[in-house]
Amino acid sequence: MLPTIPQLPPKIPGLSISVGSFLPRILLPSAEGVELSPIDMVEPGALGVCIYNPAPVNPMPLPPPGMDYPARLAMLDERKVDLYIISGQSVEKLASWRALAGLEEISFLSDVNGEFAAEVGIPIKRVEGQNFRTHAAFVLHEDRVLAILLETDLAHNFESLLAALDMADNKEPGTYDLSDKPTY
């Protein structure tokens, strides 16, 4: 039986998917130069994390001072978790961002036409009277959604991602206090 991570609320406003559903099986341009589906991004039977940013902006910030992306990626590698990104940026812009961020090993899918965003929905956040698209991390078993963590990626709320991965691995969630907190 596959693990299930509790999620409150059971349905997140704006998202068309929820825990237990599957990511859309649509084909999107990839870093490899071919069209792939989210199911292609995670090894069969493995846990995965998909960082999803529907807007045509960087999927996550360039490493802020004090942040160690390679160390955070190593934490995911130790757990044998496949990480990839789906973003509203073009393949060329994603490749450029990945090189600038020093994250060459991260795979990505481009949702420049908004097909994935239309299927998944776009959560909206309100900041200082303005609406913004938000981003999320999906904890996956292949392409089955085990958890949805809003505003989470390698830089933001990474501790909650590690705790969700513990739960997906049927472990008690750990308490994480990373030493490489970003400074802005």
Key words describing this protein structure:
single chain; alpha/beta; 184 residues; 5-stranded mixed sheet; 21% helix
Protein described:
The chain has 184 residues and is an alpha/beta fold. The chain is built from four helices and nine strands. It has helices at residues 69-78, 91-101, 115-120, 158-168; strands at 28-29, 35-36, 47-53, 82-87, 107-110, 124-127, 130-133, 136-141, 144-150. The strands form three sheets. It has a five-stranded mixed sheet, with helices on one face. β8 and β9 (144-150) form a beta hairpin. The relative contact order is 0.24.
Mean pLDDT score, rounded? 86
- How would you characterize the largest beta sheet? 5 strands, mixed
Q: Please state the structural category.
A: alpha/beta
3D shape: globular
Report how far apart the termini are.
43 Å
Helix content: 10-25%
* Rg, alpha carbons: 15 Å
SS element count, helices: 4
User: How do the SSEs run, as a string of H and E?
Assistant: EEEHEHEHEEEEH
How many β-strands, per DSSP?
9
Helix/strand layout:
Layout: E1 28-29, E2 35-36, E3 47-53, H1 69-78, E4 82-87, H2 91-101, E5 107-110, H3 115-120, E6 124-127, E7 130-133, E8 136-141, E9 144-150, H4 158-168
Structure summarized in a few sentences:
By secondary structure, the protein is α/β, with parallel strands linked by helices. It contains 4 helices and 9 strands; from the N terminus they run βββαβαβαββββα.
